[in-house]
Amino acid sequence: MTNSIADLKEADLYLVTGSNTTETHPVIGMLLRNRARFNGTQIIVVDPRKIDLVEEATLWLRPKPGDDIVWLNGLAHIIIKENLYNKSFIDQHTEGFEAVKEKVSKYTPEYVEKMTGIPKEQLTKAARMYASAKNAAILYCMGITQHSSGTDGVKALSNLALLCGQLGKPGSGVNPLRGQNNVQGACDMGCLPNVYPGYQGVALRELRDKFESHWGASLSDKPGLTVVEMSQAALDGKIKAIYIMGENPIVTDPDVAHLKKAYGKLDLLVVQDIFLTETGKMADVVFPSLSFLEKDGTFANTERKVQRVRKALNGPEGARTDWEILCDLSSRFGYPMSYKNSKEIFDEIRKVTPQYAGITYSRLESGGIQWPCPDEAHPGTPVLHRGKIVRGKGLFVAVDYTPPPEVPDKDYPFILSTGRDYYHYHSGSMTRKVKLLDEKCPESLVEINPSDAEQLGITEGDRVKVAGRRGDFVSKVKITDRVSSGVIFAKFHFAEAPVNLLTNTVLDPESKITDLKFSTVRVEKYGG
Predict the structure, then answer these.
(1) What sign for the dihedral angle of Cα 325, 326, 328, 329?
(2) What is the distance between the alpha carbons of residues 35 and 45, in angstroms, rounded to a whole number?
(3) Angle at the Cα of 198 from the Cα atoms of 163 and 397, rounded to 5 degrees
(4) Beta carbons within 10 angstroms of residue 134's beta carbon
(5) DSSP letters along 26-45, please?
(6) What sign does the dihedral 79-80-81-86 (CA atoms) show?
(7) Would you say 429 and 248 are in contact if contact means Cβ atoms under 8 Å apart?
(8) Contact 240, 246 (CB under 8 A)
């Protein structure tokens, strides 16, 4: 996030898209509800599904799934055409504006309405609301990113913020809501295929020299593979072993049948987790690790805030901290790691990661600190780009709409979109073990529009088979106007109704994220 969670209170308007905020980020979702109800903060929700936050919204735009770049470029078109953009901010702090201006010229309200179904009057109202707000914050999540054009969707959001000068000040910015606990911290630590800790590129010689010197080891200059690329490489016999920590891809990754074949070809599959997951059951070796309540360390959350984690409970016999397991393995492989505790590891992080240099365990005793924090006198950075954009000038990037890799046809007439439930988390490996949570949401339900249900002869509670190009699953039906005609929605927490058998492995060319939010399927009543 460019801004902090508390800082969102300074916003006059929230543009929320691709985020079912009240269910998937309920703390932030409650903040948005409160600001709308008791402070009059305006909310524009842009979502194909009628999420709960629509109840609080001043305006709800309902595009077809996969059309994000169309309506985003449409907003930019209106703002530019009506001279609502922040010319002084653009002149002083940005570059590339003219290319975007030219690109969005064809995205007229009429064109957007034809492509997305959003009435042109609503689109125009949304553009004027965003452009006229003193402080407007964009919040988005995986409904934007998990597409084969997800990177372009994020660029289009950035263009919108730059266009109206909504950056580098309280209550504004472009704020991705991270999908998992400490996923921000994992990325900060270099758990990406092309960077070292602190987003320092592996291909840059001076950075590689720095880490080779610090670690006393020779390092490759070639970026690694992403998760989906790894499975394909395993299937092709190019990867012989995979080590999985704290993930359950057999439930959560796309095209699960393909993934199972890939894992079956490995010489070695290792899983390290706090519970025996569906993926763990396939593993050759399972390392039991400790949960956050059972260890010391730090997490970095969605707002870049680094916080202490302190041991509160003893873990089960035989389970160990992740770092102890990794250090012992490394030492047995011939590279000794002899850290005494998590603090020693964090001290090393500070030395090699500029954003963390000023953060210490002793400072964290008083509360979390948001990076970048370059030295111990620095208070941390709640708002990025304040005074000056970090790269010098904010870069406008002209992006164009490209259709999804598969579109509805007579064999697969429905669009399948996926998401989460308020009561469950990710693959359900933790939450489905909690009796109360499982009672609240005990089984998979496929949402379908009433008109589609009537045409298919389906009634509430019927079981249906949802079939796509890569597989099928069976689930009960919930008939609801939350989804549009021609669209169905399913939650992926349930291994017994494996939604991700159907999802697409087509990759975004830049981020290598898959098209999890858009697959085409057919639905038929299931009598088995």
Answers:
(1) positive
(2) 15
(3) 25
(4) 12
(5) HHHHHHHHHHHHHH--EEEE
(6) positive
(7) yes
(8) no
Judged by average pLDDT, the poorest of 262-276, 302-316, 400-414, 416-430 is 416-430
pLDDT(484) > 70:
yes
**Total H helices, total E strands in the chain:** 19, 21
Tokens representing 380 are: 């941390």
User: What is the distance, to the nearest Å, from the Cα of residue 240 to the centroid of all Cα atoms in its chain?
Assistant: 29
Q: Are 465 and 473 in contact (CB under 8 A)?
A: yes
326-363 pLDDT per residue, tens:
999 999 999 999 999 999 999 999 999 999 999 999 99
Residues 6+ apart with CB under 8 A from 270: 241, 242, 243, 244, 283, 284, 285, 286, 287
Q: Residue 315, Cα to own-chain centre: how many angstroms?
A: 30
Q: Is the pLDDT reported for residue 528 higher than 60? A: no
Burial, 472: exposed, middle or buried (Cβ in 10 Å; 0-12, 13-18, 19+)?
middle
Q: Which of 338, 263, 341, 353 is nearest to 306 (CA)?
A: 353
CA distance 460 to 373: 54
Four-residue CA torsion sign, 480, 483, 484, 489? negative
Q: For strand 200-201 and strand 241-245, is the pairing parallel, antiparallel, or unpaired?
A: unpaired
Residue 21 structure tokens: 């905020």
CB 495 within 8 A of CB 423: no
Q: Which residue type is seen at 68?
A: D
Residues forming beta bridges with residue 272, ordered by sequence position: 245, 287
Mean pLDDT of the chain: 92
Are 3 and 126 spatial neighbours (Cβ–Cβ below 8 Å)?
no
Q: How far is CA 127 from each of CA 4, 42, 81, 133, 409, rounded to the nearest angstrom?
A: 24, 13, 11, 10, 33
Task: Collapse the DSSP code of 474 into the 3-class scheme (helix H, G, I; strand E, B; otherwise coil) and give the result.
Answer: strand
- Token digits for 315? 């873990």
Answer yes or no: are the C-beta atoms of 12 and 171 closer than 8 Å: yes
- H or E segment at 523? strand 519-525
First to last CA, the chain: 47
Does residue 429 register a pLDDT over 90? no
> pLDDT above 70 covers what percent of the chain?
100
Helix (H) or strand (E) run with residue 452 in it: helix 450-456
Q: Compute φ and ψ for 237, nearest 5 degrees.
A: 80, 10
pLDDT in tens, 103-124: 999 999 999 999 999 999 999 9
SS3 370: strand
- Reading phi first (left if > 0) and then psi (alpha if -120 to 50, else beta), residue 246 is in left
Domains in the chain with CATH codes: 6-177 (3.40.228.10), 178-224+289-375 (3.40.50.740), 226-288 (3.40.228.10), 414-525 (2.40.40.20)
What does the block give as tokens for 469? 């190009």
Assess contact for 396 and 159: CB atoms under 8 A. yes
Residues comprising the chain, all counted: 528
Compute φ and ψ for 405, nearest 5 degrees: -65, -20
